[in-house]
Amino acid sequence: MKLVKYGVVGGFGVAVDFSLTYLVKEKLRLNPYVANAIGFSVATCINFFLNRIWTFRSHDPAILGQFGYFALAAIIGLGLNTLLLRWLYQRWKVPFYVAKLISTGVVVIWNFVINAFYTFA
């Protein structure tokens, strides 16, 4: 059941991530990797609170420490996401948003494992 909830929260996070990435990249005309980092970061913050409250039902009073672990996992995930995105987009000429979707899917697996067994354990 946690994996399903994580998927729902993640789906919402993906929508936030892609929307912000599109806005920053296409409308504000910033570097696509900066846009990716902004979308990813905002979605990560939202996902932390939704996962804490709903998915993992954490009542740990050390919320800042817990967020620190979540953020560290997300930063590592962002690095993986950006490397894979860049590799697919620049080297293999996969369209940007298709490459972003693929790299996001890979990072979702990383994030779930780390958060289920470490952050919210």
Notes on the structure:
This protein has 121 residues and is mainly α. 85% of the residues lie in helices and 0% in strands. It has helices spanning 2-27, 32-55, 63-91, 96-119. It is elongated. The protein starts with a helix and ends with a helix.
The share of residues in helices is over 70%
Cα distance spanning the termini: 15 Å
Put simply, the count of helices is 4
The secondary-structure class comes to mainly alpha
Gyration radius, in Å: 14 Å
Low-confidence stretches: none
What form results from the Cα inertia axes?
A: elongated
Order of helices and strands: HHHH
Task: Give structural attributes.
single chain; 121 residues; mainly alpha; 4 helices
What is this entry, summarized?
This protein has helices at residues 2-27, 32-55, 63-91, 96-119.
Write the layout of secondary structure elements.
Layout: H1 2-27, H2 32-55, H3 63-91, H4 96-119
